[in-house]
Amino acid sequence: MPKPIKVLSIFGTRPEAIKMAPVVKELERTEQIISKVAVTAQHREMLDQVLGLFDIQPDYDLNIMAPEQTLYDITAKALLGLKPILEQEKPDIVLVHGDTTTTFIASLASYYQQIAVGHVEAGLRTHNKYSPFPEEMNRKLTGSLSDMHFAPTGTSRENLLDEAVDPEAIYVTGNTVIDALLATVRPDYTFADPNLQQIVQKEKEILLVTTHRRENLGEPMRQVYQALREVLAQRPQAFIIFPVHKNPAVRRVVEEELGQHPRVQLIEPMDYEPFVNLMNQATIILTDSGGMQEEAPSLGKPVLVLRDTTERPEAVRAGTVKLVGTSATIITNETLTLLKNPEAYKAMANAVNPYGDGKASQRIAQAILYHFRQSDQLPDEYGLV
């Protein structure tokens, strides 16, 4: 009988955990694979919420998060902390996800020990190294160190091919976030917070807002919040629910611009399960998040992206999301158009999500078996885009 394949999945933030959770669970179910998990806890509390929801018990936890941590702090702690783990486990392959500092450093640490790297959600590009920062270069550098590239879409594959990645090392899988989403959203979901439950039952037009990008801190975010105030002024039936990021630089401006408005509910960042079910209750989503650009279209929710660039152009082409930047005038006009024009709303809400069918994790597990010659069957390709 062939020796089992040891796979070490490494992640450190809530978005990574959400997207890696269905992969970890699929690896656990795969007979020929020994699955191990290490977390850096680059984010702590938000990471733990997802681990609990999906019942994942990490084998290693570096717990590196510290108040006001910098990119230098995360980089140094993760690199040094992962060294003994890799030396002890000697995995056949390390799986990383996306574009965080943990992702890049885990890839680098694996490379230093000549361990193969598999990159989940590979090939996304804006071609601007400072937007998003530092994510664009984290993702690109990880790609340079990877041996297996799990591209969510055909567009992502083309980006990798343009960078001379071996075509046989690329697997188009769909995005694992759709796997996680479809396993978590329920039409009969009841929110534990009675105030939130009352809002989603009572309000007819709910705008769900999130902001956190470093490049939007300061005046760009202030412009966003001023636009939201103008939308509320022109649309008395509209209500905003805003889970506010813990970054003090975000919170200060949110409080100044929206804190006293009677039709704005500022809440703490939410666990993944209630949050995606809140997305399902929203009318429109305004966000600078990358992951929400993939999730919301599966729920039929138009997304206005509060950024000038996106590494997810498939959604723009499909019509499920629209880049609106951080200009108060543009955000106001685009939001009001969706609220006032049913045809414009339907065009975005009914567009086909290009990002997945809920089977990405199965394709990744199958690709690993194929790569390590435990199976002669290639996974089918996800091919909507």
CATH architect. name of the largest domain: 3-Layer(aba) Sandwich
Number of helices: 16
Estimate the strand proportion: 15-25%
Secondary structure: helix percent:
40-55%
The structural domain count equals 2
Domain UDP-N-acetylglucosamine 2-epimerase: 25-368
Enzyme class: isomerase
Pfam families: Epimerase_2
Organism: Heliorestis acidaminivorans
List the main descriptive attributes of the protein structure presented here:
single chain, 385 residues, alpha/beta, Rossmann fold, 2 domains, seven-stranded parallel β-sheet, six-stranded parallel β-sheet, 46% helix, UDP_GlcNAc_Epimerase_2_dom, EC 5.1.3.14, UDP-N-acetylglucosamine 2-epimerase (non-hydrolyzing), UDP-N-acetylglucosamine 2-epimerase activity, WecB-like
Brief rundown of the structure:
Its EC number is 5.1.3.14. InterPro entries: UDP_GlcNAc_Epimerase_2_dom, WecB-like. The chain is of the alpha/beta class.
Explain what this protein looks like in three dimensions.
The chain is of the alpha/beta class and 385 residues long. The chain has 2 domains: 5-175 and 356-372, Rossmann fold (3-Layer(aba) Sandwich); 192-350, Glycogen Phosphorylase B (Rossmann fold, 3-Layer(aba) Sandwich). Helix content is 46%, strand content 15%. The protein has a 7-stranded parallel β-sheet with strand order 3-2-1-4-5-6-7, sandwiched between helices. Strands 10-9-8-11-12-13 form a 6-stranded parallel β-sheet, sandwiched between helices. Helix 2 (45-53) links the parallel strand 2 and strand 3. Helix 4 (101-112) runs parallel beside helix 5 (135-145). The longest helix has 19 residues, at 71-89.
